[in-house]
Amino acid sequence: MAAMSFPDPVEQPYEAAQASAAALAAATGADRHDIAIVLGSGWKPAADQMGEVAAELPMTDLGGFPEASVQGHGTSVRSIVNGDRRILAFMGRVHLYEGHHPNVVAHAVRTAVRAGCSTVVLTNAAGGLRPGMWPGQPVLISDHVNLTGRTPLLGPNDDRIGPRFPDMSTAYSPRLRDLARSVDPTLEQAVYGGFLGPTYETPAEVRMARTLGADLVGMSTVIETIAAVHAGAEVLAVSLVTNLAAGLSDEVLDHDDVLAVAAHSAERMGGLIAQIVGRT
After folding, report:
1. Which residues pair with 164 in a beta bridge?
2. Using one digit for the tens of pLDDT, what is the confidence trace for 18-54?
3. Which residue segments constitute the domains of the chain, with CATH numbers given?
4. Residues with Cβ within 8 Å of residue 155, at least 6 apart in sequence
5. Which candidate, 83, 100, 133, places its Cα nearest to that of 245?
6. Catalytic residue at 15?
7. Which of 33, 95, 101, 144 is the catalytic position?
């Protein structure tokens, strides 16, 4: 499909998601997928634990996806067979701080829902705020505070995607969190504070986030969660704590260190996600 003819996900989010879902079906030979997984910074090796790869292609081949420009984020999408389920694994994501419109950030999850996915699993690397959190710790997100100042629902609502005023009171599915804890009862739950980035948070911003109820901070996930819930999908989100947030230790925050911690834990996390997916 020529780039000129592809629907713009900013102006035509529904048509763009439909077109990308159709391109996915044609490229993979799968009429539908069941579960979508978005892999955050350093999580790419986790995909190898999720099942048999039936197809892999560049995200840009689906239309509506810009090239990823952040180290640690892939640029492909995998169709994975896990038992009788088809998993759609996005090997990375784009972010608001790259200059993208929220509808572009949300395009992956909207495409997944149009492709048949009723469950969306979001992963990320995050800074830990709660006392006792440690680098390498997986944490279930139970709620979020959107500090980005952005939303993928701004502007005229398209009822084909979802309602004008979606309920966000259980955005992070209690059922899926209970299921995850049945796989690993040691999993803690926490509130995620989503910042715009790309700067890491200042110590004062960390104190603000803690006052607002956040236990984790990061630069992704909230836009995708809003879009997925709006579209009617169940959301499970897992943060991998890769560092303590600014002001909570003497360490200088560095993206390479974040990737190193994530890479060390990614295969174990992939096994955890695969078990959770197997029970959904």
Report:
1. none
2. 999 999 999 999 999 999 999 986 777 778 888 899 9
3. 3-279 (3.40.50.1580)
4. none
5. 133
6. no
7. 95
Of the candidates 21, 108, 219, 269, the residue annotated as catalytic is: 219
Q: Cα–Cα distance between 174 and 154 in angstroms, integer?
A: 27
Q: Which residue has the tokens 């990737």?
A: 259
**For this structure, is 41 an active site residue?**
yes
- The question of whether 14 is a catalytic residue gets the answer no
Picking from 273, 258, 274, the residue whose alpha carbon sits closest to that of residue 42 is 258
Q: Is residue 249 scored above 80 in pLDDT?
A: no
Burial class (CB in 10 A: 0-12, 13-18, 19+), 85: middle
Catalytic residue among 97, 118, 142, 168: 97
Catalytic residue among 243, 266, 269, 274: 243
Catalytic, 95? Answer yes
Catalytically annotated residue among 33, 73, 100, 107: 73
Q: What is the pLDDT of residue 50?
A: 86
Mean pLDDT across the chain = 89
Based on the residue annotation, tell me whether 243 is a catalytic residue of this protein: yes
Enter the DSSP assignment of 84: T
How many angstroms separate the CA atoms of 211 and 148, rounded? 17
Alpha carbon distance 41, 239 (integer Å): 10
Determine whether 76 is an active site residue.
Answer: no
d(CA 191, CA 144): 5
Residue owning tokens 């939303």: 151
Catalytic residue among 55, 98, 263, 264: 98
pLDDT of residue 254: 60
* pLDDT for 270 beyond 90: no
Q: What is the full DSSP assignment across 2-61?
A: -GGGSPPTTT-HHHHHHHHHHHHHHHH--S--SEEEE--TT-GGGGGGSSEEEEEEEGGG
73 is catalytic: yes
Tens digit of each residue's pLDDT (9 = 90 or more) over 114-136: 999 999 999 998 999 999 998 88
Catalytic residue among 173, 220, 239, 265: 220
